[in-house]
Amino acid sequence: MASIKNQKRGMKFIVVMGLILFLFIIVTAVLVAFDLRRQSQLRVADVPQIVAPEKNSLSPAGEVDVKLADVLPATQTDGEANAEKTIKVYFPTTRNNADMADCGKTDIVSRQIDNSADVNILARSAMIQLFNGPTADERKNGVVGFWLTGKLASFLHTVVVRNGTAYLDWGNLDDVIGNASTSCGREKFFSPIYNTLTQFPQIKVVVHSINGSPAAFYRDFMEMSCPILDDDGYIISECGDELPF
What we know:
The protein contains seven helices and seven strands. The chain has helices at about 1-45, 70, 120-130, 135-140, 150-155, 185-195, 215-220; strands spanning about 85-90, 105-115, 155-160, 165-170, 205-210, 230, 235. Mean pLDDT is about 75; it is low at about 40-80.
């Protein structure tokens, strides 16, 4: 009888311990699950969130305008460190040229422009530098701008390079440039532009026009005979009423 009682007590003990172990496992699993959930929420909270602006009267129809630049840091593009190009800009000068006896004499200054594989862009940038004129220090050394000013810039419609020729189309220049039709006036106008543009190997000739007409520029405005010839007698411009493109 004693042996049977001992066996029953042992069975009860085993059952009780089993229940305790089962409850312990259940409680542990609940606690672990809760902790994992809490950590997951914390990790989500640590991620930067992009919040769309609230709809207001400043945004038409309440549209959301999220700019990438507001979210992502600025990065340097490939070749950005070498994005500039040094060019020569030619201005009329009085240095070693008393009373500007040589009307076409120019001095060279250096300028920085955005580099480009497109000669059209380079030519336009070079013209902008011409129109910006010489600096104060350059003026002290005899470099002058004359007609090459911001006012003249507003009359330059287009700069187009085709087959080795740079075509500059202007608006009506009568009220902007005085005495340009004199031989000295022509040189002061032509020489800086020609020298600056032909530094680019893709440009050999410079042709001017007014409102698309070379004849209006050379024959009517500059009062030059047509066709326009270079020093070797080769035709530079036929002085037609339209550009060849």
